[in-house]
Structure formats: C-alpha cells, structure tokens
Amino acid sequence: QFVCIAQQDYCRILNQVEKNMQKVEEEGEIVMVKEHRELDRTGTRKGHIVIKGTSERLTMHLVEEHSVVDPTFIEDFLLTYRTFLSSPMEVGKKLLEWFNDPSLRDKV
C-alpha cells in the first residue's frame, strides 16, 4: 500500500522525528540512538526506547535502568543478538563478568 502525503506534512513529520531522537556519543562516535516516546496523553509514561546501537553498547544497555516505555529491551535483545554478535558465548561471558561485579549483580 502506498500513502500519499503533502510535502509540507512530510517535512513536519520528519522534523518531529529528528527532535525526538537522542544520540549517545562516545569518543566522538554515535554508539546508540534512542527515541523519546510518550505512551499516554497525560505524559506520565514517557522515556526513551533504543532504536539502534553498536553491539557493545546494546550489550551494555542490558544492565542499565530501563524506562516503562521500553520494558521489553532485554527480551528483544535475547531474541535478536545472534544477528549482531558472532557467538552466544559473548553474552554468557558478559553475564558472568557482571555477576561477579557486586554493583551489577542485582541487575543480572
């Protein structure tokens, strides 16, 4: 199916998408892109969801705080990691490493 929209509407939508993007940079490189989302009209459920990232940054995001807007990140990661990691052992090693770190143990 094709949708036809006016150029003015297209530009407005594209501009809004750009405003809602948050780019995470490390050492001058973009390593993750997140999008701001609001799940209800009152604005009480809002936060950022991961759109894309490097394999290292996506893996590190597993132990970071997740908002109510992106509650399925861990499940999504576990369903898709084989497309961007060369071996499941990479995930296993990271999990063991994090488990041995007392500050991260509760998040593993």
TrEMBL record:
Pfam families: RasGEF_N. The keyword Transcription regulation does not apply. Residues 46-108 form the N-terminal Ras-GEF domain. Keywords: Guanine-nucleotide releasing factor. The keyword Zinc-finger does not apply. It comes from the Eukaryota. Coiled coil: none annotated. One of its GO terms (molecular function) is guanyl-nucleotide exchange factor activity. InterPro entries: Ras-like_Gua-exchang_fac_N (IPR000651), Ras_GEF_dom_sf (IPR023578). This is Uncharacterized protein DKFZp586O1422. It comes from Homo sapiens (Human).
